[in-house]
Specification:
Radius of gyration of chain A: 24 Å
Shape of chain B: elongated
Oligomer: heterodimer
Low-confidence stretches of chain B: none
CATH topology of the largest domain in chain A: Cytochrome-c3 Hydrogenase, chain B
Strand order of the largest sheet of chain B: 1-2-5-4-3
Distance between the termini of chain A: 55 Å
Number of domains of chain B: 1
Number of strands of chain A: 8
Helix content of chain B: 10-25%
Order of helices and strands of chain A: HEEEHHHHHEEHHHHHHHHEEEHHHH
Shape of chain A: globular
Mean pLDDT of chain A: 85
Helix content of chain A: 40-55%
CATH class of the largest domain in chain A: Mainly Alpha
Largest sheet of chain B: 5 strands, mixed
Structural class of chain A: mainly alpha
Number of strands of chain B: 7
Strand order of the largest sheet of chain A: 1-2-3
CATH superfamily of the largest domain in chain A: Cytochrome-c3 Hydrogenase, chain B
Mean pLDDT of chain B: 84
Distance between the termini of chain B: 75 Å
Low-confidence stretches of chain A: 1-5
Largest interface: A-B, 46 and 37 residues
CATH class of chain B: Alpha Beta
Radius of gyration of chain B: 20 Å
Number of domains of chain A: 2
Number of helices of chain B: 4
Structural class of chain B: alpha/beta
Strand content of chain B: 15-25%
C-alpha cells in the first residue's frame, strides 16, 4: 500500500517536471448542452486547473423561443398560455402574476374567492417547484431515494392540477379578471391528501439528509455568496434569502391576499448551497401552512370579475342573447382593450422575483411584454459562485440555482 | 407606500444635476426619466444614498418606439431590499444609432441584462466588458425585438429542406 503511494507520488513529481504534462496546463472543457447535470439546456465553457474551476463562461439561450416577440403578435389573453411555458415547474404562478399585472394596468378588482384560489394554487405550485428542485438537487449528489420520494408527492400535486385546470403543466388557468372556472368539488380532498404526503416526504427526507455526511460535505460552504454580491447580481428568492436578507415579495409588497396569511420567511446565514437547500425546504413547510389557511378561509362567490369590458360573458349568455354574442365576438377577435400605459409588476415566484414590464398602446395587443426571469440573473452569478470550486461542485451549485430553461431563455 | 415620483426627481436633481430628471406616473412605484449620459451616476446615487438604498438590481430592458418617434426607451428597475420600494429609471436613445454607457460596473447583474438588450434591440453599451449576443447565436443577423424585424422571418443556419417534397433517399 505504502509502496504504491510512494510510487504514485514519485511518478507525479516526475510528470510535473516534464513540460508536456497535461496537469501543469490549464485545460479547457466544454460541459453541455446535453450533459445529464445540465437539465434544461445550457453549456459551460470551463477553464480548469486540475479539477478546480478558474473560469466558467455560461452559455444560455438554447431554449429561446422568442416569447416576448410572440406576445406582441396576439391579444393579451393569448399571451396567457405562453406564460405557462416560462417556468414549467410552477406554471400556475406565472399565469397568475401575468394576469395580476394586466389587471393592475386595467384597474380591475378580482373577486375575493379568485384571489384566495390564486394564492392557494400558487402555493401548491411553489411546493411542487421546490420539491422538483430539492429532489433533483439531492439526486445529483447521489441521494436518489430523496428524489423519488419527492417525485411521489409532486405527482399528487400534479394530479390535483390536472383535475382543477385540465392539464398537468400547460394549465392556462388564470384569466384577466379572475380564473377560467371554479375548482371541482373534490378539490379540497385532493389537496389535503397531497399535503399529507408532502409532510411525510419532507419528514423522511430531512432524516435522510440532515445528518448525512456525504450530503452536507458537498453542500456546506460550497458556492458561497455575500449579501452585497447577491444584491448587485440581482439575485432574488431563495438565493437571496440564503444570504440572510429576508426579502420576500409576499411580505415586503403583498399582492393577492398574502397580507391576510400568517407565515414566516426563512433565511440562511452564510449564503452557501446548504442554506439555499434549507431555505427551500423550510419554505415548503410555510407554503403548506398558507394552503391550510386558504382552505379554512376560502370564501364563496364568483371566480371572475363581472366587467364586460375585459371579461368574457358566461357561455349561456353567448348562446341566448345578442349582446352576449357580440361581446364575446369583440373580446375574442379584437382582444381586450387594455388602457394605454406601462407597468412593472412583480410577484414572488418559486425561484424569486418574476416581474412583468408591460406596455400597452390602447389597442387589443400588447405593445411590449418583458419578463424579468429570476433564474436568468441566478445564472449570471454562476461564474462568481463556482470560481475556486471543483467540477462536482458545479453540478450541486447549478442544481440549487434551479435554472429553468423555459424561463431563463424565454 | 410607493415613493413619490416628483419627490424622487427633486432628490436626483440635487445629487446629479446633469441628469435633468423628470418624474412620471406609473402604478405602484416612483419613476423618473433622465438624460442617457447621466444614467450611471443616477444609479450610483440611488444605490448609495442611505435613505433610498436601492441596492437590489432588478432589470434593464428596452421598448422600441422607432416608428412613432424614432427612439428607443431603456428602463432600469431597482429596489430597496429593506423598504421593498421600487424605482424605475427611464432614458431615451436615438433609434438610428442607440448607444449609451454601460452600468455593469455599478451593478454586476447589468452585465447579462445589457447583453440581452444588445442582442434583442441592438443597443451598444459603451464600456461593457463582454458585449456579445446572449440568447441568440453569433451568426444571427438583426435584432428581433425591434418592431422593424419581421415576425415570421427565418434565418436557417443550414438550408431548410421540405421533408415531403424532398425526402431522404431510400436505401432499398
Amino acid at each position: 500500500m505504502s509502496d504504491d503511494k510512494d510510487r504514485g507520488s514519485a511518478q507525479l513529481r516526475k510528470a510535473q517536471a516534464t513540460a508536456a504534462d497535461p496537469l501543469s496546463e490549464i485545460m479547457e472543457l466544454q460541459m453541455g448542452p446535453s450533459h445529464p447535470a445540465c437539465h434544461g439546456t445550457i453549456k459551460f465553457n470551463l477553464r480548469l486547473d486540475g479539477e478546480n474551476i478558474i473560469a466558467c463562461d455560461t452559455e444560455v439561450g438554447y431554449l429561446h423561443r422568442g416569447f416576448e416577440k410572440m406576445c406582441e403578435q396576439g391579444t393579451w389573453t393569448q399571451a396567457i398560455p405562453y406564460t405557462d411555458r416560462l417556468n414549467y415547474a410552477s406554471p400556475l404562478i406565472n399565469n397568475f402574476i401575468f394576469c395580476e399585472a394586466v389587471e393592475r394596468l386595467c384597474g380591475i378588482t378580482v373577486p375575493e374567492r379568485a384571489s384566495y384560489l390564486r394564492v392557494l394554487l400558487s402555493e401548491c405550485a411553489r411546493i411542487s417547484d421546490h420539491l422538483t428542485c430539492l429532489g433533483m438537487g439531492a439526486t445529483e449528489l447521489g441521494a436518489f431515494t430523496v428524489g423519488f420520494y419527492m417525485n411521489e408527492a409532486r405527482e399528487l400535486l400534479y394530479n390535483m392540477s390536472s383535475r382543477v385546470t385540465g392539464a398537468r403543466v400547460t394549465v392556462s388557468y388564470g384569466r384577466v379578471g379572475g380564473l377560467v372556472r371554479d375548482v371541482p368539488d373534490d378539490f379540497e380532498d385532493m389537496i389535503r391528501a397531497a399535503l399529507k404526503r408532502t409532510n411525510e416526504v419532507l419528514r423522511d427526507s430531512e432524516k435522510l439528509l440532515e445528518r448525512n455526511r456525504i450530503f452536507t460535505d458537498r453542500m456546506v460552504g460550497i458556492g458561497t455568496m455575500s449579501q452585497e454580491q447577491a444584491l448587485s447580481f440581482g439575485l432574488t428568492g431563495p438565493l437571496l434569502r440564503a444570504t440572510g436578507i429576508p426579502y420576500d415579495l409576499r411580505k415586503v409588497a403583498p399582492y393577492m391576499v398574502y397580507d391576510r396569511m400568517d407565515f414566516e420567511v426563512p433565511v440562511g446565514t452564510k449564503g452557501d448551497n446548504f442554506d439555499r437547500f434549507s431555505v427551500r425546504f423550510e419554505e415548503t413547510k410555510q407554503s403548506i401552512r398558507i394552503v391550510e389557511q386558504c382552505l379554512a378561509q376560502l370564501p364563496g362567490g364568483p371566480v371572475i370579475a363581472d366587467d364586460p369590458t375585459y371579461v368574457l360573458p358566461p357561455k349561456k349568455d353567448v348562446y341566448t342573447t345578442i349582446e352576449g354574442l357580440m361581446n364575446h365576438f369583440k373580446i375574442i377577435i379584437e382582444g381586450i382593450r387594455v388602457p394605454a400605459g406601462e407597468i412593472y409588476f412583480a410577484g414572488e415566484a418559486a425561484n424569486g422575483e418574476l416581474g412583468f414590464y408591460l406596455v400597452s398602446d390602447g389597442s387589443g395587443r400588447p405593445y411590449r411584454v418583458r419578463v424579468r426571469p429570476p433564474c436568468f440573473y441566478g445564472m449570471s452569478a454562476l461564474e462568481t459562485m463556482v470560481k475556486g470550486f471543483m467540477i462536482p461542485d458545479l453540478a450541486a451549485i447549478f442544481g440549487m440555482i434551479n435554472m429553468i430553461g423555459g424561463e431563463c431563455d424565454r | 407606500m410607493a415613493i413619490d415620483s416628483a419627490d424622487l426627481a427633486a432628490r436626483v436633481a440635487a445629487a446629479v444635476p446633469s441628469s435633468e430628471p423628470e418624474g412620471f406616473a406609473t402604478p405602484g412605484e416612483g419613476a423618473i426619466e433622465v438624460l442617457a449620459g447621466a444614467v450611471p451616476d443616477v444609479l450610483r446615487f440611488l444605490r448609495d444614498d442611505p435613505e433610498l438604498s436601492m441596492r437590489l438590481f432588478l432589470d434593464v430592458t428596452a421598448v422600441d418606439y422607432e416608428e412613432s418617434r424614432g427612439q428607443l426607451e431603456l428602463i432600469y428597475v431597482l429596489r430597496s431590499p429593506t423598504s421593498g420600494e421600487r424605482v424605475l429609471v427611464k432614458t431615451r436613445l436615438d433609434a438610428a444609432d442607440p448607444r449609451t454607457a454601460s452600468v455593469s460596473d455599478v451593478f454586476a447583474g447589468a452585465n447579462w441584462a445589457e447583453r440581452e438588450v444588445y442582442d434583442m434591440f441592438g443597443v451598444h453599451f459603451e464600456g461593457h466588458p463582454n458585449l456579445r449576443r446572449i440568447l441568440l447565436y453569433e451568426e444571427f443577423e438583426g435584432h428581433p425585438l425591434r418592431k422593424s424585424y419581421p415576425y415570421q422571418k427565418r434565418q436557417p443556419l443550414v438550408p431548410e429542406r421540405d421533408p415531403i417534397a424532398d425526402p431522404w433517399p431510400k436505401k432499398h
